[in-house]
## 1
Amino acid sequence: MTNLIEARGLSKSYGSYQALKSVDFSVARGKIVGLVGPNGAGKTTILKAILGLTSYEGELKVLGLEPDRQRHEIMQKVSFIADVAVLPRWLKVENALEFVTEVHPNFNLERAKYFLSKTNIPMKAKVKELSKGMVAQLHLALVMSIEAELLVLDEPTLGLDILFRKEFYNQLLTEFFDEGRSILVTTHQIEEIENLLTDLLFIRDGKIILDASMEEIADKYIEVMVSKENAEKAEALNPVMQRDVFGRKVYLFEGVSREELELLGELHSPSVADLFVAKMKEGK
Amino acid sequence: MNAYTVKSFQALVKREYWEHRGAMFITPMAMAAFFAGIMILGALTGDGLTVNEHKFSFLDHLPEAVEKFEGIDQEERSKGVQIGLYAPMVLFGFVMLIISLFYTLGSLYDERKDRSILFWKSLPISDTTTIASKFISVCILIPALYFVVIAAFQLFLLLFTTVGAWFGGSSGVTIWASSNLFGVLFNCLMSLIVASLWLAPIWAWLMFASSWAKKVAFLWGTLPIFLISIAEGWIFHSSNFIEMVGIRIASGFAILNSNMNNLLGGDMFDVPVWNWYQTFGNMEFWMGLFVSAVFLAGAIYTRRHRDES
């Protein structure tokens, strides 16, 4: 089984509002997939469906199991951080470790203790006595100590300062991620994780509008910095987006060959953020 | 049920204790400490009290009291001591039921309010195991913890009166011999548990309400009961439903204090009183457990399928 997640015709309606409109996608083992979209596009609905937290129509397999019926089995191999501040405030750090050890067959207590020993989190403290950054560190230490095959992160660093955010993803990459696992992550701070991602999923209005690996994106989407005199030539090639930088124009092209573009100016790979803006404006 | 389910279940019950230690254990401990403190303080300062210009001394009266006590017929004496030991159950039992009420109302609502449900749901624990652990917490864990405190307080009462007996010139052995201590302790434990099980349909209903309340779980838990009663009054001009609920609750108190009631001659309550073991022979007890199962199934379904956002 190479695909940890398989969705075919995945749909979800809230009354007459269609949050997901027959979505197809898959997440293969060993990938870090960024699920990116504006608020209300259906990101959280997809994650909730994968985690068995909401009902859905269509076909969805997570580790070969169906989340709406086999949630209990799935959660032994899947972990998630749904939000920064969901650890119960009354829970003591040492009790959190004890509890997860007892309820989770794939939890490695020694690992969790090792992660915590690198922080300033006191074992006797209650969650409510910790700073927001410490709570995130604690949650990450717990989650990274679960031998999960799939880790789902929904805005895991929201409200944390930049040092914590960097450290968060850094640790995730060095201490948790390997070829046997996959991570599915949504975040608004996309520029901070774009170097981490292997694959990208863009979602808009309940539809997937981009599903590609980072290599495919680098091949397909090229940014060219063009001097004023070449501007007309560039516009003739139908750029998907343009912006002005220091008196020069930057055009973003989709599916135009490198050879052709090299004649116009300096080539770059677009940032995910720029690509996102271009894709969100497309057809609007 | 595999080994992990059992282990998870134990961890979940422990979890309930961690979260509610204040209500489940600290509160009754503080009450017991308070009453014990007042009694000790009273004994230390009460001697030499002046009432209506008559100097009154407990110490002077103690030998007289001890003599009187030891002169009573053995059966009557034992009755008196046991009533004294059962008496704290009235207050501690009442507090326990109030605390159980708030515990069940918050049991499935608080985790949604503070969004910690997203953490609990990230662990491989089924909703059935979770809700079973909360139900067992209210029916067994809370009564057991209150029992520990009550037992400690009863021992204090015996020690306290023994010291009093010493000042009255007796060894105090008669008090212990008349106490039927192990019988009293066992009856207390069982009465606490059986009373809570008798009220199980109420706890299960409140847990169900707690699982779907959007706000103010207290209103969602109590309003339907009043609405049904009002509807019944309009349509049938009767009040069977609210009477049934009221009698159920009153009988819970009666079971809790049945031991003392029976020793006192059996007229403490307006409702029929069953001992804890007589309760098992009552059809209504088993029907209550059946109704509880239905409400709990509703709570499990709601927690499982509720869309958390």
## 2
Amino acid sequence: MSLIFSAIVPNNPKIFLENSQDNSSVTAIANSIQELEGELYFMKPDTILLLTEHGSVVPEAINVNIESPILADGFKNGLTVDVGFITQLKNVINATAQSNLVTVVAESTIPQEIITPLSLLLKHLPETRVVIFSMANFSLVKHQEFGEILRQLCLETNKRMAVIASGHLAKNSTKENALDTLCLNFLKNKELEKILHINTEVIEKSKSDLMRPLATLIGTIAKMNLEPKILSYEHLDNENQLVANFTLK
Amino acid sequence: MPKFKIFLASIFLLLTALPVSAFTFTKGRIIESDEVAQDQYYLSTFGIQAFLEEKGSVLASYTTLDIDGQKRSAAEIINAASKKFELNPLFFLVMGQKESSAITNSTVTSAIDDCWLGYASCKSARGFTAQLYAAADVITNKYLHDLKTKGSTVSGWKVGTPKTTVDGVVVNPQNNITAALYTYNPLVGRWGGGNYRYGANSAFQKLWDEWYQPKKAYNYPSGSLLRIGDAIYLISGDVKKPFASMSALLSNYDPNKIIPVPAVIGEQYITGQPIRFPAFSLLQNPDGGVYLYAHGKKRPFTSQESFKQYGFNPAEIIQASADEMADIPDGEPITVNQVDPRGLLVQNKVTGAVSYITPQGERSDVIAREIFDNRFLSLEIIPKSPEEIAKFKMTKPALLKNGTIITTKKDKTIYIIADGKRHAFKSKKVFKKYGYQQKYIMPVSKKVLNLHPQGKEVDLKKKQQKKNKKK
């Protein structure tokens, strides 16, 4: 019955590796993630839904990893998967006309792009259950529709749910590129729906891996009267890294 | 071939896991009937998952390869095997607890991973799915099949014929499933006067007794709020409707009155449409039409005038999706010059009497303060002349809300209001067994009590098993 936390978090492992160096971008990202982690710790979710373009990607369907536990550096007992949530999702999807929307895989290991955001956020909550969704090759609008299904499931459970979109904005580009400008403006102006209709060419050119997770997140938090709050936006490792939180108005 | 050998390896886990409580072993009828043992629909995948979660079982997060090579959750695999072999899913859950403590253990052990049902030597069927399919296959396709076709299992257990178990107890099986269970594991065990070192069939029955609830054993009246697994439901007849928003719950119900119930009880209600919106929400269709969500229906406003007339605030309109709107049945359109669709509370300027005017324009007198407090605290009272009030057609007095628990000072019986009737709990013990709390009993006058006609008594359906305990 409760979606208690939602955020955008980068997935670049260099946020860890370069944390000790004197780099103002890393410091800004690290500080904002620390703030986010503190907020998450306070909210103590039962389950985190991680939305990513990495892991076992199947272009025709959104992929969910049912392996439990998943081996991951930094998690002594591995990551425990919320198997019940996945079972419920499968049932809902199978009951609709979109039974091919989701596939289930079992991968006992996951790439650093998935481990990084979870490690950053679950430093003090390593036992939190997770569900990892690898996005498909669908349009942003279809991902948003999938997000709406997740929202309904989150609302019908009594668990405390958090949803995280993970990735970077433009790659191999300066901060002033078209995608980042549009995204940041839409976030600042609370025009989340407009993000779904950004020109496909602009997205492809940017080489961002955040847009599909973000579209799903937008579907998940729709109608919740949440206010996006940009905590940091920095250039690191040739990628534009955004940290944002959505707080209840 | 008797399957009891492997049982020895895991029995010590069991002895610590079983709670000690009053229990009478019915050695000839481990499960009350073959029909119950073969009720493959007793728990759905959700029910199994909820059951595992409420027991804190490691199997709630356990995934492994299913028979088709796909990775699935334990709940899904158990459900599929139950259907294939026509056995009650609870049968496997009880067996799993008896053999490896798989249901109450929160961490995985080699006993759970390799041999959770204690089938055979583990060598011929090692692993969660292999154990499940091998055990289910031998019970259904061998033991039960032999009993039906030849009248006896491979080791000579048959219905109505006494036979001595390996631990020296004479047992006369009263149904096929009992004969099959003694073939699977030919011991009575510690809870039934058999070998104290083993739990065996007496442990199976002890667990079954604790976990199994006959269908409709508990009959929660409409208006009850139940927490089943990780969701909260409103009971309405045979249907449980999940709340899909906290505001929908809080707008009409007291969350303190939610009763946590086991998954096996929750499974007996059909899941209905979720309750997504608070009562009297204003909903807008994607096509632009505005509706009032009232009494589970969506009532369209026929004009802006009708919207304005009743003082609704456009800022409170919620954008709903086409799917959400489609889920809500249609109600009567709201036009101008009707009674406020939320109803009205009016007070006679001369007598001071308070009446509720229904959205249909009928008048229900509020004859007692208890009823006013119970139902109408959120409505503003509008003073009106006796003549104005008399224009509304008088109907029955207003009643208490569904789910209200009442008693009177003189009569110690406890009642629950459902569908306008008062349903007496058979005893205080039954009241407690249902999980209702004493502190929410509302004392009412005899007059208020008698407003509500007598409904069905609230009782518990008893288990059949103990009737045959002497056998």
## 3
Amino acid sequence: MSKERRPGNGHDEPVTRLSDLDDEQLLAALREALGASDPPPSWCVELAKESFALRTIDAELAALTEDSALDGAAPARTRARADSAPRFAVFDADSLNVEIEMTPGSEAGSWQLVGQLTPPAAAIVGVRRPPDDQTRVTADNHGRFMIDQLPSGPLSLAIEVEGRQPIVTEWITVG
Amino acid sequence: MTSVESVRVNSDRDSADPVPGLVEAAAAGDGQAWAELVDRFSPLVWSVCRAHRLSVEDAADVYQVTWLRLLENLNRIRDPRRLPGWIATTCRREAQALLTRARSSVATESERLDWLLGGDVAADEPTLTADQHAVLWRAFDRLSDWCQQVLRALILNMDKQMSYPQVAAELGTRPGSLGPTRGRCLKQLRKLLEAEGI
């Protein structure tokens, strides 16, 4: 553990360990860690509870295997927020890959998402957002789909190809 | 009130800890169990979000994604006793990902680290790292119920500026015992932190 500042106000000397804090400082640190000074907004807590409706039981999980926003080797793409460079992400399941590209949408704060299923297949693509939104778009016979006016926030896609086990992608944050 | 002066560490948490049962029930479709998990660990998730000095809006996104990731992994949690660590780690990764996206691409790793550790922290902003939050939280969770009650009461009353007799009255204990109990509970907490090497 590197040197940290002491919790609480007005203490400027760095300390190395939490266990070195005196009683007052330890209580102040606890106050911060327990969220007593900064509880989560109640609407946040309610939303998390209601999101239980988004639980899937029969779907295969497609793992996020590539995300240009997290890829240090592609610095030009890490600024999806700040400029118009698209953000790419890839989700892999056993039978299907989902590639998506996100760019800022026409309305401020909205995003446009263009997707490609591999191998290409017609599909119903559910746009999952908390607490229980399930907007749907269709992927054409080439496996292409587009979602417009997507607001910032958590997103997962549910892919249904006829005759196959449904797939849901890992959650990512758009924006 | 029982075991008023007790400062023992819970050694029988396996039988007392409701978390494994809640995880199992939620995985089986019990929404009430899920709600209890959210209530129980929301302060941890939120404090880790805020430790990264995210805005309320960004913290809300990271908070939701953390819960959604737990939701999709409920069946894969092998050791529910380690859930606080799993939650804190998931939340920290998501917060760092958001910061990476938001930050200028030219920022070097060390600049990013300096920023996270708070080179110029404003006085009213959190000063603990996400790791420290998780460790403090875990240590606190291992204290006896009475110690947890006493420390929580003292913390809540820091803002209200209540006197020891008032806090003692709220807890239903003698004012004279509060100071010594506070000292012993903090000592116990420090021991647990030392054991973590933090």
## 4
Amino acid sequence: MSEPAAAPATPAEPDALAVRDLAAGYGGGLALRGVSLSVRPASITAVLGANGAGKTTLLRAISGVIRPRGGRVLLNGRDMTGQHPEDMARSGVAHVPEGQGVIAELTVEENLRLGALWRRGREVRAAALAEAYQRFRVLADRRRRTAATLSGGERQMLVIARALMAQPRVLLLDEPSLGLAPRVVAQVMQLIADLRAAGLTVLLVEQNARGALSIADQGVVLNLGQVVATAEAGALAADVQLRQHYLGF
Amino acid sequence: MTLLRHLAAAVVVALILVLLTIRLDAFRDYQIAEVACYVVAVAGLTALVGLSGQISLGHGAFMAIGAYSAALLLLHLRWPLAGVLAASTVITAASGAVVGVAAARLRGPYLAGATLLLAVALPSLALSDNSLFGGDQGLSVVINTPAFLGPSFPLTRWQAWLTCGCALITLVLLANLARSRVGRSWRAAGDDEVAAALAGLNVAGLRVLAFVVSAACAGLGGALLAVTTSIVSPDAYTVTLSVALLTGAVLGGLGSLAGAVWGSLVLVLVPTYVMDVASSHGLSSSAGSNIPVAAYGVVLVVVMLLFPDGIQGGLVRLYRPLAARVPHPHWRGRARPDDSTGPPTAPAPQPRASASEHQEEGSI
Amino acid sequence: MAELFELTLGGLSVGMVYAAIGLSLVLIWRATRILNYAQGGMAMFTTYLAFEVINRTGSYWAGFAAALLAGLLLGGVIERVVIRPVENKPPLNAIIVTIGLLIFLEGLAGVIYGGQYRSFPAAFSINGLHAGSVALGISANDVFVAVAVLVAALLLAGLFQYTSVGLRLRAAAFSPPVARLLGVRVGRMLTLGWALAGLIGALAGVLVSPDTFLYPNSMDAVFVLGFTAAVIGGLDSPVGAIAGGLILGVALSYVGGYLGSDLVPLFGLAALVVVLMIRPEGLFSSAAARQV
């Protein structure tokens, strides 16, 4: 088992996203017991671990879907703990939940527009929409169709595009490769890597650890609500014992 | 054994009531009788709603069926009182079966709407045949104190004994039913229909059975009310009554038999009090008669928002050690308002759900 | 033949009122999955308000506007104060709360105004219209009723379909958690949804009160029929509510005309029973909306 390695951060520049001793849960129990991690700007951090390790809870506690019971969430150094999801979204955190969350009754275009509705200025919103269509040709072709008619891969594109409409600084992705064919998974992973190149900070929760580590800068392994390893992605992938114990490959 | 504990408690309560009715005056005895009639009906309703998770806005109609059956049987067939009460209960139970079957596929607002329809439509049925049902004058119901009590035994005291006796019997039977396999099946089907069906429970049959039992209770309550108030007429069994019964059940705490008692007390005592206050302040009679209606509404809303567990729940929280030793039947049902996600209130160190679990295990 | 024509037109006009109530119920159901039993009571209350304004100012349209505004406010306030706490609780809680609200409003109206039937003015003439010498069987007011509801429904449809607010309203209704993550203030949208429903209900109230007279329980029957219209169309379908209202209005008009007006309430109830037993999810609904 590798020891938690300190994520090397330039002292002057705050982490795009930092989480300190975060605790959260449902009903009587705690799914997250004191998790800490730091994410540098324009990087991808993969959050890995078995089912029930607390990965989804972590994202929900950050984006405000559930209220943390303890600890802090810092966005660019600013304490944002416990904010409502609507406010976190407006502060630049985009959370794409597990199962995609396409609003099936709305069209592709309406889904996209929804992502930027809170932004001021018609030109700003129109420009965001145009950019989305340019980057995701598939969505442009299907813009008037109801979201229910999209395939799994297209839906994943839609929700990522929709999240980008808000021009977020931080993107929380929960299991984007779930239920997708391998070829499509590769496309999605490539997309995420491209987004990082464009300056986006990504926190990526994945069951598909191998794929996630291949594009990530940093990896964090959770088990039973706690961090058991934090390391640079390559180092994590190379640690065979850790991989087999917690990640299953 | 649960049955013995329930019987013992019932005997104790019965003795207390006997003493009370002897010491109190005729009017108070009459009020006690009225409360007991409602207890029977509300207990059945709270079982339906709190245990099997079905809502009914039409139980006033079942009370009407029981009341009119009793009136007609006494008037035309001159059966003995015990027979009349039993027959009224059975007749109403049968109507409960009909309604239950018709409504078996309905849930939530659709079920509520359908039962509301029943409450609205039934009084007009009574008005349809003047000769049989007495039109809006209604029918008068007269009973006499039984001979063995002696010639000078007050009628109101006999009415109080009769109704309280029936109420206690009903409560004991319902309490045992709740603990039995049927009661557990009701709870299971109410909590999660699909799981219950997969486990082999006949969900539709259970739902109908719940309607039958609760209708039977309402019918008995109606028959007793007819005997107590000496009259049955359509305007005593309007939608307001159905809502009042639901208010009593909610106020007492859905699913709680003891709560049925509290709720019935409030139902009988508060309107009288309110109307007294209104007339002493010189409000017109129409204003005075509408205040209780407005008050029911406020009670329903406030209790649902602030005290979803009703009076009984409040008492349980305050006096949990005491309540745990008194064998009162208290079950959890799917329809019980769920406030376990909210912040726990100050005096309760444990979540409420575990308190009632503890009680259930302790009583067996 | 002329009688059939008359009955049909009359039925369409009153059917629009049922459609309006049904529409307001559908709005609330889609937004919060709650059936608002108090919808009729709220409409009754705002109509009493209009009554007051008309009596004090002598102007029908002032009263009309006051009712609509009051409906908007009442709907919004009720959602925020009374309904919000039970939105995420078991459905039974909301049923009990809305029923409690209904009888509170009816009791309050009884206390303030008493139980007597009051006559409420119509916007336009209630004399039968004529095309030349041929009696058309409906009045100018009937036409106004139908047009008013139609305009309101179209405006509402336009709002939902073509505006940003409408998009937010729909998103908040279809998928509140996802909408939140996209920055939509879902709570405010639900309040707005109830406010709009209150507006439509208030409109129905002032439109139908000339016929039914105004008293604390005057909207009970209309509510039941509006509920029936919504169920016929499917609680999820606004178009269905309107269609259901029109079908019901025309059918009841025929019953009243050919079979006698005593049978109308019974027929209305029978229609509801039949729909609930045979096809509870309604004629127009795509999803199985019958779940709790």
